[in-house]
Structures are given as structure tokens and as C-alpha cells.
Fold these 2 entries.
Entry 1:
Amino acid sequence: MRLKYRYATVMEKDTGKSKKIINILEKYSIKYKYEEENSILGFYWSLIFNLYEDFASFKEIQKKIKSYGLLEQISTEFDKEDMDNAEWYVIYALPCQYPQPEEDWEYVKLTFDTDNWCPYCNVGKIQNKPYKLMKEPKQKGNQFWGLFWENDAIFCREEIKNILEREKIQGIHFIQPVRKNNTLIENYYQLIIETVLDKGFIQNNTESIICNRKNYDKKKYKLDLKYCGRVKFAHNQKGGYMFEKRIFFSKSDFCKSNEYFGSGWNADRLNIISKKVYKIIIENKLKGLKIAPIFHE
Ligand SMILES: [Zn+2]
């Protein structure tokens, strides 16, 4: 596996900064994407590039660009061996729509049983109605897709539902999303994952966030309720997720982690697939999912 550091600026006013960063990148032969815009408001630029931790001069370059205040995002690229050796995988559906209605997070109460839900940390809601969506998804090349704000929702096309049913994939059923006016969105389905695994997350390199006064400011939420005290994990994306092997005894090919993950308002159980599903995705070249192998100690 390789650790990737992605750096990006949003459009910035020209202060000579872009030239200085580009000089550093060119000195080390780092590829970058630079764009500029000259409008009546002045000269603006943006810059995107990746650094890999296994570069010989990684530390040196990182130190040099640190003072420029670029946005840094860490992720891990897994190699074929990591993928082949794993038995279970975490999946994310790439988001392309927002749940509706968006105003004041109104969709939460319309889509979930919120009896056990905490509005501060967002842990504990249980979906009991179909998602309402603005329209059908447009991503023609993708067979799976997801939602912004709700990382655990996975949708697929009818052809994928047929494949998964034909292959007798265990532990899921399908429901159809609806439009704002409650009519069904034809040919598209949400995968409902039925099995929640036992606790077994191994907390290496992972911050735990407790729902309390220190982490959630009641004033910011404009709410005066009791903190629920539950814990969620903010994984730093350096390396994969690590779980105890003993929790994977289920016959289900799709499962959810017992633990919740996410920082800020994000709180989702991870969606997990078996090797059987992974192979179906690879063999059929199905697109729209990010897949990461699960590691054991
Ligand atoms: Zn809470």
C-alpha cells in the first residue's frame, strides 16, 4: 500500500505564492495541475498535486510546502496483493445526490426512526422509509452510487440487483427510492444491509470521539438536549481498517460494522462485503464504489 497526500488550493488571489510552490514541485519533478482565471476581480489561480510518502524526498518536500497553507488530504492506495489477500472489504458508494428535502436536515425525520438518534453526534438513527431524491441518477457509467451527507446509503441499477440475486448474495434486500412527490424511481434500488457485526474494530491510529460537552457545543447546534455519551471513530485514512477476525462468522455477504465512524456530523456504520461480492464487482467491472481491504492483526 502507498500513502497519498493530496494538496489543493481553492482559487486564490495572486500573491506570488503559486510561483514559489511550482518552483518546488518542478525541482522534484512532481506533476501538478495548475489553472488560472483572469477576471475583473483580478488574477486567481488554483493548484492540485499529489505526494506519495514513499518518494525519496517526501519529508523534504512536505517541509518546504508546509508554510504555504495548502489543504492536505491523506488517503491510502492499496496494491493488488492487499486486495487479493483480504477476505472482507469496506465499500463506499461515490456520492452524486443529496437526500431530500435538504432544508434543516428535514430528511432525517422523514427517512429514519429517530428514537435512539442523537442530533449532536448523529449516532443511532435507523432507516425505516425510502430515501426521497430530487431525480434519477445521471452517472451513466456507474452501476452503484451514493449520497452526500449519508455515507452508508448505497444504490444500484436494476441490472446489478439481478446479478446479486442470481448469485444468491446473502444479507441484503432492495427498496426503491422515491421522488419528492413520493412516486417510485423506476429501475433503481437501495441495498438494505441486514446484518450488523459484533464489536471488533482494532483502534490503531484512530481517534475516538465521545459525545459530550467537550466535543459538541450546544450553542452551535441551537439545541439543549442530553449528550448521549456514545463513541464514534475518526479513522485517519493511513492504511486500512483493522478488525478482529473472529467477528466475521456471518453467512451474510453484506454486513455493517457495529462501530460508527466519522468526524464532525458524520456518523456511519461501515458497509462491508465478502470476497464473493468483491469478485463479482471485479469480474463484471462494476463501477461507482471505492473498495478497501480489511486487515486483521
Ligand atoms: Zn450523541
Note: The helical segments are 17-27, 58-66, 80-85, 106-111, 158-166, 218-221, 275-283.
Entry 2:
Amino acid sequence: MKTKDYKPKYPLIWNKKDFSIKIFCSIPNIATGILLKAGDALSLIDPGDGILRDLNKELNPSEILSITDIFISHGHHDHIGGVWSLLTYFKVMNKKSDLNIYFPKGCIEIVSIYKAFRNVYSGTVSYNVLLKEIDNEKKYAIRKMKVKPFFVDHSELASDGVTKTKIPSLGFKFFYNGLSICYGGDTALCDSLLKMTKDSDLAIIEAGNKDDENDGIHLTLKEAIAIGSSAKEYFLVHVP
Ligand SMILES: [Zn+2]
Ligand SMILES: [Zn+2]
């Protein structure tokens, strides 16, 4: 299968034993947006631009306000573009419960958005934002889920189009009700992704490169299919 032949049809939905994923979209350089449900606990993964519009179609306001955890794989705008809107929506709607944002240590974008938000709205925010900077691969217990972050290999190109710089990047593996969902974020081929994807009930794997392109920043469709096939089921996302 060539990249030009494959286009995911969003939303992509997976649901087993009260554990579900809805990928509203995942388009390179535009936006990703993923809703994760474990029982009645709602979380977001990589809330890019448009996430509020998608949540508004999917949930009622009190359900949106019940979101307590946001998982950020890395700071590229297509993965975090909706964070400011969410923070502000929660303020306007008088959210009371804490909001935890999990993100890789060194992801300056999230820290900067948070600081700007505090700066603009200091003293008038009804809820706590707790920044959870991740600098190791320790498993967390988050509400009824277990979450295992893992480091992946993602870079960005400088404006010269040649110089590559590695950026802090994570994948997350979520466990609930005896099932597991592995989200690799944006990544080139790396051992941690292979290890964490294997035998997952669902893997969400990016295929951001064309087949003839191997830039060490994203996976080719061929690589993504090979990795995804080691899980019980998989979705390919972030396809150009
Ligand atoms: Zn991306
Ligand atoms: Zn990226």
C-alpha cells in the first residue's frame, strides 16, 4: 500500500469493555484530537486546534468540564493548538475539578501557554491546573487507569530544511479493565515504540512520511503497518 492510497476516515472509533478511543482527526501540520474514556473518566490526548468544536459535538458541557487529564506527546502545534481554548473554556464555564496536564520535560510550549494563561487570568480561575512534567518512564495510576509514558524519537527541521533537532517526545500506553491502548505520538522508528506496541489491544501509530521518504522524523506507511501489526488492532494516523 502506498501512502497516496491510504487515507484514514475520521473519526476513528474503538470501544471495548467501557474503554474507548475516539480520534476526531490527526492531520500533520493541521491538528490531532483524541478523546479517551475509561469508564466515566474522560481524558484528552494531543488536543490540537478544533478540539473544543469536536468535544462540543460529542459531549454536553458538564461532561467536558469533567475532563481531568490531558496527555501531550510533544509541543508541535498540531498536537497542542487547542490547549489555550480548553484552559479558557474551563475558566469561562467555572470548572471546579483539577486539570492535570502530562507532558514531556522540556516541552517549553506547554509551560509557556500555562504561564501566559496564569498571567492573563490571575486570580480569576476557578480550577487548578497541575503541570505534570514527565522525565521518566514510570507507570502512573490516574483515576481508574494506569498510564505508562515512554520516550520516542521525534525531531523538527530548522528553517534551512536540513538541520534536524530532537525534541522532547512521548508515547503513552493506557491500561484499563485488562485492556491496553498504545499511542505512539509522532516518532521515527525506535525500540520503545516496538516494545510498547507489541500485544496492545489497540495501537495508534503515525504514518507521517511518504514511502520513499525516510527523514528520521516520522514513520513511513510501511513501517507503521509493520509496527501496528504487532498489536491486536491498530489505527494509522497522521497520514499526509
Ligand atoms: Zn504532528
Ligand atoms: Zn510532531
Note: Residues 3-237 form a domain with the Metallo-beta-lactamase; Chain A fold (CATH 3.60.15.10).
